[in-house]
Amino acid sequence: MNILVCISVVPDTTTKIRFADDNTRLDVAGVQWVINPWDELSLTRALELKDDASAGVNQVSIAHVGTTASEPTLRKALAMGADNAFRVNGEFNDAYQVAAGLAEVIKAGQFDMVLCGIESSDYNGSNVGSMLAEMLELPSVSAISSLKVEDGKALIIREIDGGKEVISVFAPFVGIVQKGIAKEPRIASMRGIMQARTKPIQVIETAATEAFTRVIRFEPPQPRAACKFIDPDNAGELISLLQKEAKLL
Amino acid sequence: MSVLIYAENWDGKFKKLTFELASYGARIAEMLGTKLIAVSIGNVEESELKQLGRFGVEKVIAADNKRLKQFDSQAYSGLIAQLAQKEGAKVIILASNNAGKSIAPRLSVRLKAALGSGVNKLPLSTDPFVVSKKVFSGNAFAQLLLDTPVKIITLLQNSFDLGEKPVDITVENLQTDLGGLEVKTEVIEIRKQEGNILLTDAEIVVSGGRGMKSPDNWQPIVELAELLNAATACSRPVSDEGWRPHEEHTGQTGKIIAPNLYFAVGISGATQHLAGVSSSKYIVAINNDKSAPIFEAAQYGIVGDAQKVLPQIIEAVKELRNK
Ligand SMILES: Cc1cc2nc3c(=O)[nH]c(=O)nc-3n(C[C@H](O)[C@H](O)[C@H](O)COP(=O)(O)OP(=O)(O)OC[C@H]3O[C@@H](n4cnc5c(N)ncnc54)[C@H](O)[C@@H]3O)c2cc1C
Ligand SMILES: Nc1ncnc2c1ncn2[C@@H]1O[C@H](COP(=O)(O)O)[C@@H](O)[C@H]1O
């Protein structure tokens, strides 16, 4: 079984987000780029499955749609243990274009399981994984919090509103993962970092499909009114404020 | 032409969320001068379906078929896409929840329709069609142009107030055979969370962080939640430590919620935590460090020891309830 993990590269989650050119684009000065947190966890889980001989996973590849600027981050994913990488060259912000780019990688290869994260922490689309599945006419399971492989079949726990479902699906399929899929992201070893330097990143050039959406401008959030402090020795006062002022209780 | 909502049900019942979608859809239908219709999938009684008429839905298409008993994003989106085409839907609206997030992108591909996900208010304009959506985990919003003839929106929960708009509603039971729709996933088991109020549904949430010091100190959090008919939640380290169940973890990598009122007790207010709760209408922070960043996100704050403050609050709620 071959696994493909789709990696989105995003600003570090503690980055102070600023916009440039009259709030029409992200100000990338000083931004630290990282592997999208969910993608880091799904890669970790894919590597765990590869380590477990009984799962029958032969290869873990990664795929990314983006420019050369992402390559240092892709090297980090290779250092964690991915075998090889595909980068579809282009600067796309529209999820449909990204999914179409990833679909090219998948059509050209042999992948039994394609993993995406539940969302990118930048544009918060939650779009690419399911778009990709539809483009490839594959089944998909989303909000996966546990993933096992047995006899070419995946056993999945998915979160639903108010509970969990245990699901089975035959490969090939697209899995969209969330919290729980792996405990902690795998840390690259020194050996992994050395090996990553020579692992192949295959660059794929493809004509961009048309975009369906375009960001016109960004709006920084409205500053909230200053916090109203209540005397800790008279904390019950909070409840009457919530009732009378905020009209909540 | 029409505006179409996917009216999700839970064991045959609609929730407030479904009616939020209808209220929102009714307003967009007004903006476009067209009518609002709904699609319901699964076994829902006629009297329940008709509830949608209170919020402006003029027609509901009810598809019930044993092959659609279990949720499968491929089959559900295939069906909704067919109906959207038949009804000439120009705008399709789903909830930004697990089901909506897995159906909407598939509809986008099938219908070649632009998707705005995580939208928090009415479109800023309908020609061109521009929506406001959450980006950078709630640290900003983007004005997104949906640049195709058909548009899809997923709406954030608790971001649009219910608006009554009673209309005569017709129920159309869908008889088509589901020929081309395959269900390729199999649900083996369903484990429902029993009893407690669902975190994602709750109007009030009481949440504890590492400042609670030990799982043995959780009793006041639970008691306050019970008194307020609220759900309990926690920060990530608390669930990582096993002090509280994983389902309670809120934040960027946990649940993203938008209750009317969020109590953050002994939570520092890291950006990753705020990413999951900053859409709450009101945040109350209780923390013994007055420089904790949570106070920048809160409307009401108490600088003090949680173990001393919580009992006073609990007393005050009891007094209020006894009045
Ligand atoms: C990629 C990534 C994703 C993450 N995702 C999440 C996420 O989804 N959700 C999340 O919560 N975190 C997340 N985190 C972790 C986050 O950065 C913080 O570490 C975490 O939120 C801190 O939890 P806390 O506020 O409970 O603990 P702390 O930061 O330790 O804060 C405890 C607070 O309690 C106060 N306190 C101490 N004693 C008392 C007392 N007696 N009474 C009252 N107050 C007291 C302290 O002043 C302090 O402010 C993520 C981190 C990363 C790197
Ligand atoms: N540029 C990209 N390259 C590769 N995978 C991506 C890219 N953008 C998004 N993805 C994948 O799609 C998931 C959801 O992203 P999004 O739809 O942008 O929220 C991510 O967790 C990735 O797995």
Describe how the helices and strands are arranged.
The complex is a heterodimer of chains A (249) and B (323).
Chain A: E1 2-6, E2 9-11, E3 19-20, E4 25-26, E5 33-35, H1 37-51, E6 59-66, H2 71-80, E7 84-89, H3 95-108, E8 113-117, H4 128-135, E9 140-150, E10 153-160, E11 163-170, E12 173-177, H5 190-196, E13 201-204, E14 213-219, E15 228-229, H6 237-244
Parallel strand pairs in A: 1-6, 1-8, 6-7, 7-13, 8-12, 9-12
Antiparallel strand pairs in A: 2-5, 3-4, 9-10, 10-11
Chain B: E1 2-6, H1 16-32, E2 35-41, H2 46-50, E3 59-63, H3 73-86, E4 89-95, H4 98-110, E5 114-119, E6 125-126, E7 129-135, E8 140-146, E9 151-155, E10 170-173, E11 186-192, E12 204-208, H5 219-228, E13 231-234, H6 236-240, E14 261-265, H7 271-277, E15 282-287, H8 294-297, E16 300-303, H9 306-322
Parallel strand pairs in B: 1-2, 1-4, 2-3, 3-10, 4-9, 5-9, 12-13, 12-14, 14-15, 15-16
Antiparallel strand pairs in B: 6-7, 7-8
Helix pairs in contact in B: 3-4, 5-9
Bound molecules: flavin-adenine dinucleotide and adenosine monophosphate (AMP).
Flavin-adenine dinucleotide (FAD) is lined by residues 209-211, 235-238, 251-254, 266-268, 270, 272-273, 276, 286-289, 292, 305-306 of chain B.
Report on this structure.
- The complex is a heterodimer of chains A (249) and B (323).
- With 249 residues, chain A is α/β, with parallel strands linked by helices.
- Chain A has helices at residues 37-51, 71-80, 95-108, 128-135, 190-196, 237-244, and strands at residues 2-6, 9-11, 19-20, 25-26, 33-35, 59-66, 84-89, 113-117, 140-150, 153-160, 163-170, 173-177, 201-204, 213-219, 228-229.
- Chain A has a single domain (2-221), classed as 3-Layer(aba) Sandwich (Rossmann fold).
- Chain A is 25% helix and 32% strand.
- In chain A, the strands form 3 sheets. Chain A has a 9-stranded mixed β-sheet, sandwiched between helices. A two-stranded antiparallel sheet of chain A has the order 2-5. In chain A, strands 3-4 form a two-stranded antiparallel ribbon.
- In chain A, helix 2 (71-80) links the parallel strand 6 (59-66) and strand 7 (84-89).
- In chain A, helix 3 crosses helix 4 (128-135).
- The mean pLDDT of chain A is 94.
- Chain B folds into 2 domains: 2-173, Rossmann fold (3-Layer(aba) Sandwich); 204-322, TPP-binding domain (Rossmann fold, 3-Layer(aba) Sandwich), CATH 3.40.50.
- Helices cover 28% and strands 27% of the residues of chain B.
- The complex binds flavin-adenine dinucleotide and adenosine monophosphate.
- Adenosine monophosphate (AMP) binds at residues 6-8, 36, 38-39, 63-66, 95, 98, 102, 116-117, 119-120, 123, 125-129 of chain A.
